[in-house]
Design a protein that fits this description.
The protein has two domains: about 200 residues, Quinone Oxidoreductase, Chain A, domain 1 (Alpha-Beta Complex), CATH 3.90.180; about 140 residues, Rossmann fold. The protein is α/β, with parallel strands linked by helices and about 350 residues long. Helices cover about 30% and strands about 25% of the residues. Bound molecules: zinc ion. Zinc ion binds next to α2.
């Protein structure tokens, strides 16, 4: 088969590699129904944390189980399944506490390379969640979104303690920020302020339930949020970028006692201790434990209560994956869906 490989900055190739096989008895092999390019894939694509040798790419996936290893008990061939970007056993003490992305045996799915027609999923029973039946084609983009960006936006909203009546600020208007808006709306927030400068993303944010748009950034952005919240700051802030500026903007936009969910992959962020001390905010972030939320998210999608698949504004055949990366890198697309 052919799969996606990153050779170096802006050098993505779709090339021959061996079809994945069962290696451990707890593995499953999926035939991918749809996969996509993640905002976090753009960091190595742009040469930040670039790989030293060619690496397979892709960690978002859904598809049909082709084959399972001898110790897989619950996942069955023929099922349509969704999994997280970290495989997890879902049984260790950390998983039991709901932090499956930090499972003692967590396996990053990026190592397997989901931007391909077939994918090996380790720890299949702990990782994969089956849909009630075979989904219709129009549900597939939303189910794929649950694999990472929706699960991550949901975790961010949960970590930010979003609840009815709260004022929420979302820093970052990529797919995760936008689905943070959708999640926040589902959790009953009263006011949802999105910090965005892009017209197409603002439009989708409003569709997902945002009530206000702020275009200013940095100190000016913080001043705007303070103006809108009686000088107090927001109850809950979602940070979905991962830079020093976005992190400080998030902390300074939060009122004392408020909560921040930070899910942008941190790059070069250093927090000033003394400012953090007096900010008196709750901080919870990291790679989202998507597995914790998958059953609920699949249910919401299945019953058409949410349509997170709207974040995909470009669909390409998998063999045009390089164009999918380019379009996101150049901000011509919010998120690229890839069809094998
Ligand atoms: Zn575990």
């Amino acid at each position: 088969m052919k799969g996606t490989t990153l050779y170096g900055p802006r050098d993505v190739r779709f090339e021959d590699r061996p079809e994945p096989k069962i290696i451990e008895p707890t593995d499953a092999i999926l035939r991918i129904a749809a996969t996509c390019v993640c905002g976090s894939d753009l960091w190595p694509y742009r040469g930040i944390d670039a790989p030293k040798e060619p690496v397979p790419m892709g960690h978002e996936y859904c598809g049909i189980v082709e084959e399972v290893g001898s110790e897989v008990k619950h996942v069955k061939p023929g099922q349509f399944v969704v999994g997280s970007f970290f495989a997890s056993d879902n049984t260790c003490p950390i998983c039991q506490d709901g932090y499956q992305s930090r499972c003692v045996d967590a396996r990053p799915m990026g190592n397997e390379g989901a931007q391909a027609p077939y994918l090996r999923v380790p720890l299949a029973d702990g990782t994969l969640v089956a849909t009630p039946e075979m989904p219709s084609n129009d549900l597939v983009p939303s189910l794929l979104a649950a694999s990472d960006v929706l699960g991550t936006g949901w975790f961010a909203a949960d970590a930010a303690a979003v609840a009815p009546g709260k004022t929420v600020v979302v820093v970052g208007d990529g797919a995760v920020g936008l689905l943070g808006v959708l999640s926040t709306k589902q959790m009953g927030a009263e006011r949802i302020i999105v910090m965005s400068r892009h017209a197409d993303r603002q439009k989708l944010a409003l569709e997902f339930g945002a009530t206000d748009i702020v275009t200013e950034r940095g100190d000016e952005g913080v001043a705007r949020i303070k103006d809108m919240t009686d000088g107090l700051g927001a109850h809950s802030v979602i940070e979905a970028v991962g830079t020093q500026e976005s992190m400080m903007q998030s902390i300074r936009s939060t009122r004392p006692g408020g909560h921040i969910g930070f899910v942008g992959v941190s790059h070069g962020v250093e927090l000033p201790g003394r400012e953090l001390f007096f900010a008196e905010v709750h901080l919870l972030g990291g790679p989202a434990p998507v597995r914790r939320y998958l059953p609920n998210l699949i249910d919401l999608i299945w019953n058409e209560q949410i349509n997170p698949g709207k974040v995909f504004d470009l669909t390409l055949p998998l063999d045009q994956v390089a164009e999918g990366y380019r379009a996101m890198d150049e901000r011509r697309a919010i998120k690229t869906l890839l069809m094998p």
